[in-house]
């Protein structure tokens, strides 16, 4: 990836890495903006969207000292820009009665961030980088980008849990068995900090397509335990034809599954071996 490829904003100038001390890395956003005003001049000034703005500033600061940002770094910058733009768009619609200039400042920031986001999207289009291809596939349904991601999966080049889960979701539409195999890889990489309970529903739906209603129930129950969502217990029990002793057993297994996922111990667990055996035997 050449340096000219990376044009994140018109005001960010990439310079050679000069060495950041541990202390400098801990600078807060106020200090970053004071010492690097070009990183913040297009952003709004008040306290709206505090976290989104902070993440964006810190990522810009990191990239300022990176000669050749990786595709993953640019992908993260795209996500930060998206979050900031979405938040400031909502804030721009809130009129400040006593200080109307603050409302105008947020409107200005929204327009500039939308432009910056569009520029970076255009700059990264058609990239062969895995993360940037993933972005353009999932945001714009770019078929060529999709091919890059799927080819990387087939060549065993994906170990990112988010990317793998998206590939699993893709296969779910037409190959439940293949989707399950990928979801098991996702669970291998899971812990309580990076896990999305929706992945359990993906597995559950796949097993329902494969006519394994016990695992359909077990995985749906694990999702309920992790999300604390209200469900119809009558419908849940109906999945296993009203078999209450079986329900008791499956509920206990669902608790085990949640525990091993949250502890990051799924890859060596007995419940993984059970799911693998069942998937392979389909």
TrEMBL record:
Q: In terms of domain of life, where is this protein from? A: Bacteria
Pfam families this protein is in?
DUF2989 (PF11207)
Matching entries from InterPro entries are given as: DUF2989
Write down what this protein is called. DUF2989 domain-containing protein
Query: What's the source species for this entry?
Result: Shewanella violacea (strain JCM 10179 / CIP 106290 / LMG 19151 / DSS12)
